[in-house]
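for the writeup, i need someone to sanity check this before i put it in the appendix. the sequnce is what the collaborator sent (i think, or maybe the updated version? ugh). structure was predicted straight from it, no edits. if anything looks off just tell me and ill rerun, i have time this weekend
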Amino acid sequence: MGGFDKELQATYVDEQDNNMLHLAGKYPESPSASVVLGAALEMQRELLMFEEVRMIMKPSLRDKQNSEGHTPKELFTVTHKDLQKRGETWMKSTAKSCMLVATLIATVVFAAVFSIPGGNNQQIGRPIYLDKTFFKVFAVSNAIALSSSSISILVFLSILTSRYEEEDFRMSLPLKLMFGLLTLFISVITMMIAFSSAFFLFYPSSERLNWITMSTAVLVFVPVTLYVGLQYSLLRDIIYSTFCSRNQFNRTPSRTI
């Protein structure tokens, strides 16, 4: 788009004295189907688009009032109030569900610390399988699972206690949700690894490759596969909306007309 066309569009005013920034800030009464998953991410898209249009506007037009006395920012806030509320509801619902899963994982792996595979040597209080490789794998993976699930709980708790201001939907809330989902994913994987390593501890080396142990090992990772499959779309939308959305506008940064 040439410079003249950009300037012409940026200075456009309709019959209600709405300039391009007013129009960008006005949420449609009958919006088309959202290309992102969840009202919170749709709110993020709207904020990013509004900011992109604002950057190409002349500074004198960014706070210009229309015939109803609304600046573009005020019009954005008024017309997106319902979307913001729906985004808050969606974000809280997602955080509560994920927090429940993270809490269950933390409970399980914490209890595993006090019921280690094989028990302890009663005379010296040392784990019987301490020198076994699978026991070391169990200990490390269990510790990672406990740590990551605890972090996930704290992240989702911070989402639930957020103020849910308009600007929170731009970066803060999506990043928290993404980080919470990733740490939850790590905790699921490491919990399954801890279970598998504890399971293999009780089998002699010669029996670890029979059909029982191998089928068990495969079944253990079914939850991991399900989690990835079910949460992939959400993670993809968060990452794309947060880090890649700006590229679709194809503008030169910090350039105004």
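The radius of gyration is 26 Å. Residues 89-246 form one domain.
thx in advance!!
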